[in-house]
Write a structure and sequence with these properties.
This protein has about 450 residues and is α+β, with helices and mostly antiparallel strands. The protein contains 18 helices and twelve strands. The protein has helices at about 25-35, 80-85, 90-95, 105-120, 125-155, 160-180, 200-225, 230-235, 240-250, 255, 265, 290-315, 345-355, 355-370, 410-415, 415-420, 425-435, 440-445; strands at about 10, 15-20, 40-45, 55-60, 65-70, 190, 195, 335-340, 340-345, 375-385, 385-395, 405. Helix 5 packs antiparallel against helix 6 (about 160-180), helix 5 packs antiparallel against helix 12 and helix 13 packs across helix 14 (about 355-370). It is globular and about 85 Å long.
Length: about 450
């Protein structure tokens, strides 16, 4: 007899397994109810069950209890890593920023830090550019956590949390647009620095936003922290201890919810993080509630860092360029906001075209062909909102990467789904996945 994978049931050593692919649920329950054991395989997805992107969860249920949980990934088909091999090193930023699309500045910075390692110019990146990178990443951490809290709350029925989260996120996206010209996927961080300096008056706007966020972020905290209904859905749910995290390579808030203060900003500092005053937030509960608390209080720490960045950007010590001095590497950072959008300053273009033919030729070659990177490989990692985000780059000495590979935390963290969900109720799967906060753009890169 030929095996039919689409049959409604099949016999196994564990008993009859029913695959539910559609139809009337009452008919399915009646058929299953005629057996002593109730094993049902359910596809949760492919859809957005408290995830950011298309995830498929294959659940084997016995009644309301999850016996087995598996993740089905690969529905986005982005091919970002492979596409980057066919573009020059600077153009690669435009690709990688779209991976984890909720934290684009982290993608860009990890990539650029690795390129700068290969070039040997890590110490030549201007201090002002590093401060701007830190400020944008911490604002991005806040916007990402707000989405995690908003969508996680919405999936569990806390609709006000969703309204609060997206309300505050708009304030952060307004700053992104002010500084880079775009709300998302800005390709603002470039090898050697950033695309342009912050506009005049931006620090005052950021200070106002920080004050407003400090006030407004308390709404979600007051709504959910200690709330008996929220605790019933999250306390003790999605349990994963330190041993499980280390065995699976889990990082970020999930790891810190076990009490381990592992944060690359402290343990392996980059972009000058060792000079900033902030705390690593941890919890001891190893559950969904602990991860929720970590994200709530991490946003407060990010605001502390942003305030320090703004003070530095206004101080005389940190005035200066935002791109490396080496003209064979650094793209022109003199940009202006014109009628056609964000582009090269017309005064800068006139100077190049009117005073130096060599400068014009060099500018053309730098933009079209790109700079050469010495042969070798480098790895650089940053602490993204979801954990360790690492970029492994290999150069063959040309103007394009030989290989681009990212260690995306969402990909690793999704391994925890089975450990968190098996043996729990089906309703708890949503809470557990929401606490992982996976972004499928990073998983299916």
């Amino acid at each position: 007899m030929t095996f039919d994978p689409y049959a409604s049931s099949r016999e196994t050593t564990e008993g009859t397994i029913y695959s539910v692919t559609g139809g009337d649920w009452d008919d399915v329950v009646t058929e299953i109810g005629s057996t002593k054991e109730e094993h049902v395989v359910v596809n949760m997805g492919p859809q957005h069950p408290s995830t950011h992107g298309v995830l498929r969860l294959i659940l084997e249920l016995e009644g309301e209890t999850v016996n087995e949980a598996r993740c089905g990934i690969g529905y986005l088909h982005t091919g970002i890593e492979k596409n980057a091999e066919y573009r020059n090193w600077t153009q690669g930023v435009t690709f990688v920023t779209r991976m984890d699309y909720l934290s684009p500045f982290f993608n860009e910075t990890a990539y650029c830090l690795a390129v700068e390692k290969l070039l040997g110019i890590t110490d030549q990146v201007p201090a002002r550019a590093s401060v701007i990178r830190v400020m944008m990443m911490e604002l991005n951490r806040i916007s990402s956590h707000l989405v995690a809290l908003a969508t996680g709350g919405m999936e569990l029925g806390a609709l006000s949390a969703m309204i609060f989260g997206f309300r505050e996120r708009e304030l952060v996206l307004d700053i992104f647009e002010l500084v880079t010209g775009l709300r998302m996927n800005s390709a603002y961080v470039r090898p050697g620095g950033v695309a342009q300096d912050i506009p005049e008056g931006a620090t005052d706007k950021i200070r106002e936003t920080v004050l407003q966020l400090r006030k407004n972020l308390k709404d979600t905290e007051k709504l959910l922290v200690g709330n008996s209904i929220w605790l019933a859905r999250t306390d003790g749910v999605g349990y994963l201890d330190l041993a499980g995290c280390t065995a699976l390579g889990i990082t970020g808030p999930i790891l810190r919810s076990t009490g381990l203060p592992w944060d690359l900003r402290k343990t392996q500092p980059y972009c000058g993080y060792e000079t900033y005053d902030f705390d690593v937030v941890t919890a001891q509960s190893c559950d969904v509630y602990g991860r929720f608390l970590i994200r709530i209080y991490e946003m407060g720490q990010s605001l502390r860092i942003v305030e320090q960045c703004v003070e530095r950007l206004d101080s005389p010590e940190f005035q200066g360029p935002v791109m490396v001095e080496d003209k064979k590497i650094g793209w022109p950072a003199q940009l202006s906001l014109g009628s056609d959008g964000l582009g090269n300053s017309l005064d800068h273009i006139r100077e190049i075209m009117g005073t130096s033919m060599e400068s014009l030729i060099h500018h053309f070659k730098l933009v079209t062909e790109g700079f050469r990177v010495p042969a070798g490989q480098a790895y650089a990692a940053v602490e993204s909102p979801r954990g360790e985000l690492g970029a492994q780059l290999i150069s063959d000495g040309g103007t394009k990467p030989y290989r681009v590979h990212f260690r995306d935390p969402s990909f690793n963290n999704l391994q925890a789904t089975a450990a968190m969900c098996e043996g729990s109720q089906i309703a708890d799967v949503i809470a557990a996945v929401a606490s992982i906060d996976p972004v499928m753009g990073g998983v299916d890169r």
